[in-house]
C-alpha cells in the first residue's frame, strides 16, 4: 500500500510490533486481542494468524482506514475478524460493548501529540475493564522532547521499555524491509499502575 496517509501505509512501527508478536507467537493462541488505530492492520493480522482472537479498530471517522482493515483480513484469509469504528477519547456503544481483552496493540499511534491524551484515556478505560490486560505499543521517536510520562502518571498507568534486540527487531533489515533500521523505534508495554503507587 503506497498511499502515505496515516492508516493506508505499513509504517516501520507496525513491522517492529509484528516482529514482537511473531517472537511471542506461542503465547497468542486463544488470547483476546484488540488493535487500535489499525489501518493496514499488520500486527493484528499477525496475531490472528498466530491463533489470537482479534478485533481490529480504527477511527469511526476514517472509513478508508476501516475498509483497509477489512481488505487486509480478506487478503490474509481472515474474513471473520471483526472491524470496529472506535475513536480515541470517545466512549461509544462499540467501546462499551467490547468483550474482555488480554492484549491491546497499537503501532505508531503516538504520532500527533494532540491525540496522546485521547489515546491514553481510551487505554485507561480498556485497562480498567480488563485489569490484567496490557497495551503493547511501538512508536517512532520524531522529537527529542516527545514524552507521555506525565500522561501515564495522570492516568495511573505504568510502562516498561522492551529493548528491540530482545526480540530480534534491531536489525537494519526486518521482514525483508529496509524501513525499520532507518528509524528510531521504541517499544513499551503499558498497564495499570498498582494501588501502591508503582
UniProtKB/TrEMBL annotation:
The answer to whether the entry has keyword S-adenosyl-L-methionine is yes
Gene Ontology BP annotations: chromatin organization; methylation; regulation of gene expression
Source organism of this protein record: Mystacornis crossleyi
Q: Could you give a GO molecular-function term held by this entry?
A: protein-arginine omega-N asymmetric methyltransferase activity
This protein's assembly is summarised as: Interacts with HSPA5, HSP90B1, TUBULIN, UGGT1 and UGGT2. Interacts with TET3. Interacts with STPG4.
The record's family statement is:
Belongs to the methyltransferase superfamily. METTL23 family.
Question: Its function?
Answer: Histone methyltransferase that dimethylates histone H3 at 'Arg-17', forming asymmetric dimethylarginine (H3R17me2a), leading to activate transcription via chromatin remodeling. Maternal factor involved in epigenetic chromatin reprogramming of the paternal genome in the zygote: mediates H3R17me2a, promoting histone H3.3 incorporation in the male pronucleus, leading to TET3 recruitment and subsequent DNA demethylation.
Reading the lineage from the top rank, the first entry is Eukaryota
Q: Name one GO cellular component term.
A: cytoplasm
From the UniProt record, list the reaction(s) this protein catalyses.
Answer: L-arginyl-[protein] + 2 S-adenosyl-L-methionine = N(omega),N(omega)-dimethyl-L-arginyl-[protein] + 2 S-adenosyl-L-homocysteine + 2 H(+)
Question: Gene for this protein?
Answer: Mettl23
**Which Pfam families does this UniProt record tie to the protein?**
Methyltransf_16 (PF10294)
Keywords, sorted A to Z: Chromatin regulator, Cytoplasm, Developmental protein, Methyltransferase, Nucleus, S-adenosyl-L-methionine, Transferase
Task: State the compartments where it is located.
Answer: Cytoplasm; Nucleus
Protein name (Swiss-Prot/TrEMBL): Histone-arginine methyltransferase METTL23
* Coiled-coil ranges per UniProt: none
Amino acid at each position: 500500500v503506497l498511499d502515505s496517509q496515516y492508516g493506508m501505509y505499513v509504517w516501520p512501527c507496525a513491522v517492529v510490533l509484528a516482529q514482537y508478536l511473531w517472537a511471542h507467537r506461542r503465547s497468542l493462541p486463544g488470547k483476546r486481542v484488540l488493535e487500535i488505530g489499525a489501518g493496514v492492520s499488520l500486527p493484528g493480522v499477525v496475531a490472528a494468524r498466530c491463533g489470537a482472537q482479534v478485533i481490529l479498530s480504527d477511527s469511526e471517522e476514517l472509513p478508508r482506514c476501516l475498509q483497509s482493515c477489512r481488505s487486509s483480513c480478506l487478503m490474509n484469509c481472515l474474513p471473520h475478524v471483526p472491524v470496529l469504528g472506535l475513536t480515541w477519547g470517545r466512549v461509544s456503544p462499540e467501546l462499551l460493548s467490547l468483550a474482555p481483552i488480554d492484549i491491546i496493540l497499537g503501532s505508531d499511534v503516538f504520532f500527533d501529540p494532540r491525540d496522546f491524551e485521547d489515546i491514553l484515556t481510551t487505554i485507561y478505560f480498556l485497562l480498567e475493564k480488563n485489569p490484567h490486560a496490557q497495551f503493547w505499543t511501538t512508536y517512532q521517536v520524531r522529537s527529542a522532547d516527545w514524552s507521555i510520562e506525565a500522561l501515564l502518571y495522570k492516568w495511573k498507568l505504568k510502562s516498561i521499555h522492551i529493548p528491540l534486540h530482545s526480540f530480534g527487531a534491531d536489525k537494519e533489515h526486518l521482514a525483508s524491509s529496509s524501513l525499520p533500521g532507518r528509524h528510531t523505534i521504541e517499544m513499551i508495554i503499558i498497564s495499570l499502575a498498582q494501588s501502591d503507587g508503582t
